[in-house]
Amino acid sequence: MQFAVVNSSVSSNLLTIIARSINEKFMLVQVLVVIFLYVNCLMILTFLKKEVFRDDTRYILFAQTLFVDSAFMVLSDLLLMGTFYKYPIHLIPCIIICTVVTILTVCTPLTLVAMCLERYVAICMPLRHAEISTSRTRFRGLLIIWSISSIIPLFTLVAYLAVIPSGVLLSTAVCGAELMLEKDWQAHARAIFFLLLFLFMIIIIAFTYIKIMIAARGASSENKKLTNKGLRTVILHAVQLLLCLMQFLNPYIEMEFWNADVMVFINVKYFNFIVFIIAPRCLSPLIYGLRDDKTYNVAHVYLCEKIMSMDSASILGGGGGVNKHIIIKQDRP
Question: Listed GO cellular component terms (predicted)?
Fold first, then answer.
């Protein structure tokens, strides 16, 4: 009897430690998501603030990446919250959310590929860049990106609706992307499509990198800096693309640890979420926010204006009558 009491106490302590670890990891994810969304919103407002950004293909693709990544993070975090709290929802909104998340998941790497192609045209064909980069070309490019992004999610949706029994759509379940993979052949077909898409994008990235590298070797000294910067941008996009596409392997990686220790499985799942879902979507603001002079300067000025306006509002709101009088008097010519 005493041995059973000791075992019960150890088991209770272990569950408490596991629950505390999960709560800490969950709260850290929420903090990272909030920081990420704040930076993205700042970059989006920077894009909307200057008209010159809205006429440049490079910055339009950058803005699309920001929008797609922000929407993806919000929906992914909602799914994470539902899984964390074991909150069941109706299957129809769950299917819609999972389909949209998959579209956004594919849209980001395709947009990165389009950004690499834009850099290739700008560096390797500078005289034709203005001719190629027109509003009509941009519209067609965005249409192609969203069309290709919808192929795999729509296939998954149609295949799922074809195999589920009648009446299941009216039920509730804890929502997750794996919910739509009812049969093994669906998961295998989805993996093959993602693999083909991955190879297609890697070939384009490699092509643009080689072409820009050749242009960098033959560039004059005054164009050398611009060409080398474009080369580094393509390399960063390749790293970002690799991290984005690695998330497609997350279910297979986590499956290997399903029967392992509980904490090991939780740590693997947590690592995958941070490294392959959050991290690649933090790189776009760094690549085109801090490294690009135009967006950095506009974002810096906009942020300073917001801070100054907040400081002025706090002084006017809580500084008393004397401070208000001093400020009004100083503002007069």
Answer: membrane
Instruction: Quote the domain boundaries for residue 98.
Output: 8-291
How sure is the predictor about 331, in pLDDT bands with cuts at 50, 70 and 90?
A: very low
Our CA angle for 204, 206, 212, nearest 5°, is: 100
| pLDDT tens-digit series, residues 177-219 | 777 777 777 777 887 888 888 888 888 888 888 887 787 776 6
Interatomic CA distance for residues 183 and 178, integer angstroms? 10
CB contact set of 239 (below 8 Å; sequence gap of 6+): 283
Quick check: is 312 in a domain?
no
Report pLDDT digits (tens) over 230-278.
777 778 777 887 887 777 777 667 667 766 676 777 777 788 888 888 8
Within a domain: residue 222? yes
CATH code, 63: 1.20.1070.10
Q: Is 237 exposed, middle or buried (0-12, 13-18, 19+ CB in 10 A)?
A: buried
CA dihedral (135, 136, 141, 147) positive or negative: positive
Whole-Å CA distances, 15 to 1, 284, 319: 21, 39, 52
Question: What are the pLDDT digits (tens) for 125-173?
Answer: 878 888 888 888 889 999 999 999 999 899 888 888 888 887 788 888 8
Could you give the number of structural domains in the chain? 1
Which one-letter amino acid corresponds to residue 70? Answer: S
Angstrom CA distances, 180 to 18, 168, 174, 196, stand at: 29, 12, 12, 21
Name the pTM for this structure: 0.79
Angle 180-186-188 from CA coordinates, rounded to 5°: 130
Torsion, CA 301, CA 293, CA 38, CA 48, rounded to 10: 70
Per the domain annotation, does 136 fall within a domain? yes
Between CA 244 and CA 171 the distance in angstroms is 32
Q: Is residue 296 part of a domain?
A: no
Q: Which helix H or strand E contains 333, and what residues bound it?
A: none
